[in-house]
Target: PLP-dependent transferase
Amino acid sequence: MTTANEMNSAKTKPLINLLRGWPNTSLLPVDLVKKASSSVLSNNTVSFSGMLYGPDPGDPRLRENIASWLTNFYRPPKPILSDRITITGGASQNLACILQVFSDPVFTRSIWLVAPVYMLAPRIFDDSGFHGKLRAVPEDEEGIDIEFLYREIKKSEEKAKSDGNNEPKLKPARPWGKIYRHIIYAVPTFSNPSFKTMTLRRREELVRVAREFDALIVTDDVYDFLQWPAGTKARSSSVEKAILPRVVDVDRYLDGGSEREGADGFGNAASNGSFSKICGPGLRTGWVEGTEKLAYGVSQTGTTRSGGAPSQLTATAVAEMLETGELQRYIFDTLQPAYAARYRNMISAIEKYLIPLGMKIPQTDRDVVGGYFIWLTLPPPLKGAAVAKNAAEQNLIVAQGELFEVPGDSEHASFPHALRICFAWEDADKLAEGIQRLAKVIRTMQKDSSGANAAMQPTAGEDSSRKDATKNFW
Model:
């Protein structure tokens, strides 16, 4: 048991927050943004257009520069054209815009969320009228459980047809949009929160399922550029080429591609990109890539048509940073090595302090890892909520697995024995200490649990049902 002196000592420790998914302030490229902003504001041709209402798809120069940058990074068979890109106010804002244009709360049968899911995404779907229609799709070691998705989406489609739900009920027909029967949401690469990367096979299977059932796959690809070799002793700390094609790339080329004969030209995938993780969330600037028709449809959202392209002034500064190549070099020369060092620091501590206690992490055989987060599975009978509560007493904040369940559908994907931790926000020298504190909490809980179980063993003549008395202890 924790003594009063130990509790008081813990409260004097500096707070370590391994929940917050923000970039550390030391990694914000303030000087680059200042230089680019000064440049564009000194040029009236650029600054005037930046401070007025922009064209619906966003700043043309930023669209061109993003297209070139993505082509160099993902290296698709054909160059990515700017017509495939619309500038957004970031991944979350754009998810809401996509739902406004491409979904109908009645006709769209279900929202399928790969779980564990980014914990703030469900609210966006709720706000678009899908409360009660969110479905969890569990993961396996390759990412999405495609067999589960196929089986359940087929059931959903059959029910909709039997109910006579054959056409959009609330949204009018628009030449720039369409209403999909299903929406699928995922974070395929370095997932928030599961830390997994979806395999190429799964990405191809997912696109085929989406095409069969008229679904739109919306992927948050916001961590793709933050990648590095997995080994803690790897010499390199930078990887300048994408490890896998995105789902939107697969849709562009697989089996005749999104422009294949008989297709409607909107495609079945939309890639959400953002500068939040690689430049700064306060920029409120991102992009969506899809087919030309889909990208244009996003640009016709009512708020954009009324208020102009989002982040118009910021877009001109970001365009400047990309055009000079300074942002790309900052990602490869500064961010990737910095996050690699943070990740390796945390993983080394996990291997030393947590793995011996029975903790597990997914996909340990990967050559390349990345992102912001690590997903931990606790040894039974420990539960994430209890660990998080006890960790708080050590001035340590971690995220319990239940936070990442799909509201209303914990039946198909629940995570009571999991934690998510972040290595991006806290100062690098606090990461190992955070893991040591977590290990101390877990060791204490395991000891207390073992003692409680021993104390609860029935003596001769006692009711043997007492063996179950500690089932809900955690």
The first strand starts at residue 16 and ends at 17. Residues 74 and 242 are 5 Å apart (CA to CA).
